[in-house]
What does this fold into?
Amino acid sequence: MVDNILEAAALVLSEKGYAGMNTNLVAERAGVSVGSVYQYFPHKDSLIAALHERHASHMHQVIDAVLGASNKASLRSQIESMVRALLAAHLVEPKLHQVLEREFPFFDAPQADSETDQGIAKRVRALLGQFKAQIRPRNLDLAAWVILKITESMVHAAVIDPPRGFSVSEVEKAIVEAVMGYLGGIRGPENASPNP
Amino acid sequence: MVDNILEAAALVLSEKGYAGMNTNLVAERAGVSVGSVYQYFPHKDSLIAALHERHASHMHQVIDAVLGASNKASLRSQIESMVRALLAAHLVEPKLHQVLEREFPFFDAPQADSETDQGIAKRVRALLGQFKAQIRPRNLDLAAWVILKITESMVHAAVIDPPRGFSVSEVEKAIVEAVMGYLGGIRGPENASPNP
Amino acid sequence: MVDNILEAAALVLSEKGYAGMNTNLVAERAGVSVGSVYQYFPHKDSLIAALHERHASHMHQVIDAVLGASNKASLRSQIESMVRALLAAHLVEPKLHQVLEREFPFFDAPQADSETDQGIAKRVRALLGQFKAQIRPRNLDLAAWVILKITESMVHAAVIDPPRGFSVSEVEKAIVEAVMGYLGGIRGPENASPNP
Amino acid sequence: MVDNILEAAALVLSEKGYAGMNTNLVAERAGVSVGSVYQYFPHKDSLIAALHERHASHMHQVIDAVLGASNKASLRSQIESMVRALLAAHLVEPKLHQVLEREFPFFDAPQADSETDQGIAKRVRALLGQFKAQIRPRNLDLAAWVILKITESMVHAAVIDPPRGFSVSEVEKAIVEAVMGYLGGIRGPENASPNP
DNA sequence: GATGAATGAGTATTCATTCAT
DNA sequence: AATGAATGAATACTCATTCAT
It folds into this structure.
């Protein structure tokens, strides 16, 4: 029932946007009565929140799968996998993600301190810890935040407002370059840190 | 009159968010009648759009000022200036920017192909052209887009959802590092994956 | 509930006319909430339409009752009964009919091809068929239309804009004369222009 | 200027109906400012009233022209001319008359006791006086009212809601028959007054 | 007289939410 | 738990009218 309602909400949201979404319509689409919607969701916004949470949780899974514990791949390779997986995940229901990210990227979305988001941050931090010796930033918490923001925002930008004339794979490459560039690594001073 | 109304809209939006904003309230705050609001703004959303446009235009000015034609500073130094200026500009009316970016990052925002946005992109592209020899990306259009997205999204993130425990200047530095890292320097791609 | 709302609408319409009628007032009068009005009537005008339809349907009943199948009376006598019954029916809620006919004689009224109107026309046509030999007009469809229009409009005129100085019974007689005169009798067309 | 505005009002009314008509639009169509509209018409409804008056006055002229003093034609012939002229006059701007008659046949229209209407009634009464000896009704005032109502309403019906399948000339004939039938004339009792 | 920017009372309509069944 | 009719506060938007220029 919960899933049924949530699926209907996602459908309506994709088709009509937030402005065109209303609880009665969601109920109708789900084939249940409004009352039932309110049995499981205290108010309209909790539907949006649940959708966000579902999305975040999905992303969490995707990241976990890719950065799985026994992963022996290189840093770049793992970053590449993560970016590719995230892009792919967002391109599954593009309409829904467009609405979700375009109209309410933060609205009732899992806060940075939510368990899910913490989980994601923790996973990325672990990755950085694994390659601590090879990267330039010393503050791994800040670095994890930066990497997540870069990845998140560029993936969203690529889905919502794709740069004209560039393919998804070019964008993917660019995101990886940005992240890797930021992490800098063991390169010489003239490049990774050009100022004294 | 238009400015007056827009100012009132910004005020109300800052205080109450989109949900708490209504045309009558905006009119009241502006000290004019609702009719006058509708004389200049066809509907409620056009207020939001105008606010976005105003913001974008403001950022355009800021960037133009910093990356002004006669600038002889180094690439890093110019990027630093730009990031610092943008962060500063966003911290002037933090509440307003929070609402604007949190609730409507794309909604009715100037499109990527708007004149203002084009102007900004052009300015950044020119900067990259100036230092073409020193940076790794060959496609300057894509690079400009990436840099703008990184900067934009990290500035927004810093304003909307600041990372706990880090100061603005630390964030500023991180943004610059990300951008500079992405631009990479004069070496070939083998330096992009320093780990085995 | 529907009847309740409709009754309230009739009341408000009678008292204040269309200009003074508003859905909130109708709801209040009906002792229900506006929402309930909109549950059953998609918009304000559908209230008017329903009132018209109700009226037309009522007239249908009146005519059916009077021109009932087993009626053995003369043509004139049946016409007299019909006119008398229609006049009486209109004088029950004169205020309402005044508004309905004065402001909206055709507006959203049952169309000539509506089932109700068809029913009425059919009934009158049957009457003419019954006395076909005694009347002049050969095209009974046209004749039925003419008779209905004469009756309708004169009854309405008598209710809305009664001729000063004449009693209802005089008007009733005049209507009957007009109809009977039109039907003409058993003679040929030469009797239709009795003057040289 | 007055005519200009009135013409614009007629145009707007024809195109958009009463609901779609507003003073600002009328002013715009007339190529003047709203203020000027209010210089000559105290309020919106006076525009409608003026249009009605204009129409009534026009009909007055038409009737006067046809029933002109020196007319020596037969009663039937004069009635025929009148009906034909009225039908023709209504078919000139059918859209406008539809709106005028459909939505506001009486609304702010010249009252039965207005000078214009009195003039028309007087003219018809004079006609009846001329043929007093040949017609059945003894009360000429009532007869004039009946004839006008029949003619008016059937002409309107023919314009607004024309009977399907009948040509204008058939309708014209039917109206004449109805009027002539009502006037009855010198026919025998078995027909003009079949009941004892 | 002509203008048209400003006014603001007025209203149709929506939709999140409740609760008796 | 499920239903869905009923609720009614809330609000975007209109447009007749005014009046300073």
